[in-house]
Protein: Hemerythrin-like domain-containing protein
Organism: Rhizophlyctis rosea
Amino acid sequence: MTNSKNIVDAVIDDHKEIQAYYEQYLANAGNAHEQQKWANQLIWEVARHSVAEELVLYPLLEKKLPDGKALADKDRAQHAEAKKDLYELEKLKAGTHEFDALIAKTIRDLREHIKEEEQIDLPKLQTAISAEESLKVGKEFQRTKHLVPTR
């Protein structure tokens, strides 16, 4: 992996990618095939991202921050809710009213989760670890995403 990022940048870049996939889903309204493609990409990315956070980021929060366990536990609970939604989405067809409603709810919840991570968790972590450690963990995060199963 030649594109090494620190942990904060790696997580934020993923958040942007998730949003971009949802925007592509919306941009293809009326084209069920394209919407399904973008929905699948979104589901796949959220699954990989969640697992990488749970294996790499959250243990680091617990280790490095006084309130890290509480932050990580809250994040894990939010992930559990998102995973339930993703599982339900996989049973539905993209472009249907039911699918559109559930994917919109999922994205609303994810945006709240992302906002909390970017405004609370990541800034706290950034001040608690060295730049070198942040790069090392960022690389581990990116590598983990490439290795995790998504179902």
Notes: The mean pLDDT is 94.
